[in-house]
Amino acid sequence: MQVIKFGKFAALVVAMGVIVGCSSKGGDTGGTGAVDPNAGAGYTTPASSGDDMSSEEAALRAVTTFYFELDSAELKPEATRALDVHAKDLRAAGNRVVLEGHTDERGSREYNMALGERRAAAVQRYLAGQGVSPSQLELVSYGEEKPAAMGSSEEAWAQNRRVELRK
Amino acid sequence: MKMLKIWLTAFALLLVTQNLYAQGAIEITRGTDKASPIAVVPFGWQGGTPLPEDMAEIVANDLRNSGMFAPFDRRNMLSTPTQASEIFPRDWRILGVEYVVAGQINADPGSDQYRLQFSLYSVVREEVLMTRTVSGTRSQLRDMAHHLSDQVFEEITGIKGAFNTKLLYVAAERFSVDNTRFTLQRSDYDGARAVTLLQSREPILTPSYAPDGQRIAYVSFESGRPEIFVHYIQTGRRERITSFEGLNGAPSWSPDGERLAFVLSRDGNPEIYVMELANKQLRRITNHFAIDTEPDWLDANTIVFTSDRGGRPQIYKQNINTGVTERLTFVGNYNANAKLSVDGRTMVMVHRQEGTRNFQIAIQDLERGNLRVLTETSLDESPTVSPNGVMLIYATRQQGRGVLMLVSTNGRARSVIPTQFTDLRVPSWSPYLP
């Protein structure tokens, strides 16, 4: 449980890092090094609400791994925000992606293969609900065969219970 | 808590013992009440250079693995007979040894043929129970030793020996997150003489021997997606059996070797199908929105499988002709990957007890329903039973590596299968081989 909290925290830190990174470069993005004419000396323009949106979107777009609780195929609420961005992109581009389902090492391997597919299918269902064509979403389950983290700790297990969206 | 458990066990034993006495005449089958002390004396060999295999050691290990014998330490033997006439019962009685195996190895001059003449002697009865010869080439010394073990084992227990059998398993060598080499291995049941049958950069899973011992089935992700293959061991010829969208997994041979049960999710959900191999005719067996997987055959018309239709994974039995389905497991909140013994009386499976986080291997009596946990490890999976039901091998983890463990079904013998590989999984025991 603590590990999962840590995972969330880490994800948040990464997301914030991206946001901060973008907004600190905010001055550069507008006009190739041009300085905001409205800005007084020593005064940095706060990012506009539009920039805020797109940088947050970029951060969410970077999230391509979605984690699950033990023996569960239920999407976590925080996953849906990133999936909304992916749904928008997929609707616009019409490209095909692979949803790879994974589990932790506990329990039997073939049951985990089915559980991994159930997780990938949960992501597929959500994206389809957002208007993405199911034909754009290929499912492959690897069960416990391709762990992201090695070891038999709660931390490793939490990182391995996942669906990866691969372009 | 532990103390309490010990006292309870002691009390239960006391009750059982009293009950036994009360009933009077009780016949205790030798070898199941306790492990019989047996001495496998190093075999005589007159050749100049030592043989590449310690055959007596192989025999002692075989007998120990059955859980029915306690091989006597050769360093404490008072004499080292190499034929029946040299066995003096008092030398062994004083050591508490019940049986002695002694023998002599000879090589035909100028040929690659070796002969091992051995005798099995009963110290209690002071008589020779059998004298036989096994023979073979230098590369068959291990086979000869296992063959000897089979004969000694059957002579004493009345159960056909299964030491001359093979094991399939997958070895994984992980170089990085995206770079693992998977190989399908076939070795002796005790892990010796491993041979690579298949190598892939993608996972290989669930190998299983056909009843004829000639063909194997497995799942390979070599194309990037799971597909089921049948592979002929002698020729190396492979046939792709299924390549449907979604899951293609958990292949299991029917008792006659003519059909394969497996899992497909092509209809949107993991279901069990049976294929007639001769004409590739496919029949859907289960129809449920839950996960149905890991079929194993009880007989020609009945399969058992894992399903979470009750909320948690449990084992079910289904008549594939009538569709009548029955739940088999009620103890524990996770039961999966059941493997039936050849006689259909017991099944082993991955089991998690209520209130624990350990996945262990348990054995269940199908007639009486009682369940017994066999293993003392905690991330156990993929049990596979020897064709005589005496031993089982399963996969577990030790220091971050997958290892294969052998336990006797009476729970007495336990050992790690020695290997040159770093990470092993999905063992599958062969049937009796010719």
Automatic annotation (TrEMBL), chain A:
Topology versus the membrane: Lipid-anchor
InterPro entries xrefs: Bact_OuterMem_StrucFunc (IPR050330), OMP_bac (IPR006664), OmpA-like (IPR006665), OMPA-like_CS (IPR006690), OmpA-like_sf (IPR036737), Pal (IPR039001), Pal_lipo_C (IPR014169)
Region (Disordered) residue spans: 145-167
Chief localisation class: membrane
Keywords: Cell cycle, Cell division, Cell outer membrane, Lipoprotein, Membrane, Palmitate, Signal
Similarity annotation: Belongs to the Pal lipoprotein family.
Subunit structure, interactors included: The Tol-Pal system is composed of five core proteins: the inner membrane proteins TolA, TolQ and TolR, the periplasmic protein TolB and the outer membrane protein Pal. They form a network linking the inner and outer membranes and the peptidoglycan layer.
The name this protein goes by in its record: Peptidoglycan-associated lipoprotein
Source organism per UniProt: Halopseudomonas salina
Gene name of this polypeptide: pal
Automatic annotation (TrEMBL), chain B:
Gene3D superfamilies: TolB, C-terminal domain (2.120.10.30), TolB, N-terminal domain (3.40.50.10070)
The UniProt record lists the keyword Cell division: yes
Matches recorded under InterPro entries: 6-blade_b-propeller_TolB-like, Tol-Pal_TolB, TolB_N, WD40
Main subcellular location of this protein, as a coarse class: periplasm
Keywords on record: Cell cycle, Cell division, Periplasm, Signal
Signal peptide: 1-22
Assembly information from the UniProt record: The Tol-Pal system is composed of five core proteins: the inner membrane proteins TolA, TolQ and TolR, the periplasmic protein TolB and the outer membrane protein Pal. They form a network linking the inner and outer membranes and the peptidoglycan layer.
The protein's name: Tol-Pal system protein TolB
